[in-house]
Amino acid sequence: xxxxxxxxxxxxxxxxxxxxxxxxxxxxxxxxxxxxxxxxxxxxxxxxxxxxxxxxxxxxxxxxxxxxxxxxxxxxxxxxxxxxxxxxxxxxxxxxxxxxxxxxxxxxxxxxxxxxxxxxxxxxxxxxxxxxxxxxxxxxxxxxxxxxxxxxxxxxxxxxxxxxxxxxxxxxxxxxxxxxxxxxxxxxxxxxxxxxxxxxxxxxxxxxxxxxxxxxxxxxxxxxxxxxxxxxxxxxxxxxxxxxxxxxxxxxxxxxxxxxxxxxxxxxxxxxxxxxxxxxxxxxxxxxx
Length: 289
Known about the structure:
Helices cover 1% and strands 43% of the residues.
């Protein structure tokens, strides 16, 4: 190189006059770069030098994307991307100060945000409100490359779900097994669900009208009105279901504890009449108490 960006190293000639030295990390702008050898001369020999050119190529990179297993429709989603160098003396080192494009979904419906990498090559940004179809969705990271680094990208996936309107369906803790079918709504809910804390009352059909909206595993639940509260006409295709280990009835109120929350893939055929059971497959755990 030349000028302010020049890099150099010094070595002593071997008996045959040859010399070699190493520049540990080439920091030249990729392209055609001049290489020079210079001998300053001494009391015996006059100075001399030579020059040539070689091509500096852009460095390879590897990108990775990370996010949660589940994202609530309408809620915020934080995504993380990382880029590192590949090969050479800096193999695995994070690349700072680069913009990464992070995405949820694909095609025209994809949602994106941009983050700038820190000293470790990590960038984080948030999609303010998830607005893609429910179910499995890809997440991705893309680094466009620049004059020093080649582009790279990565992808993964998560499941987008929606909270059920008006409350939450409930399943028994012994019955809630990932990959297995559960009954979340039925006139015979107490027979279809195993609860480690004992048999549930016959009056409970599977729907709790408190709490309403997004909740966590620290919240107990209740179902009012003597029998189980009535569920709505529709259930999101992928929804959050409370997992209970204790159900009891006091007066006209049925109540229980929340041991965990799972995400389920709802089977076709749900109706608001508990004589038509609502079933689903458990696809994963959102949280545990």
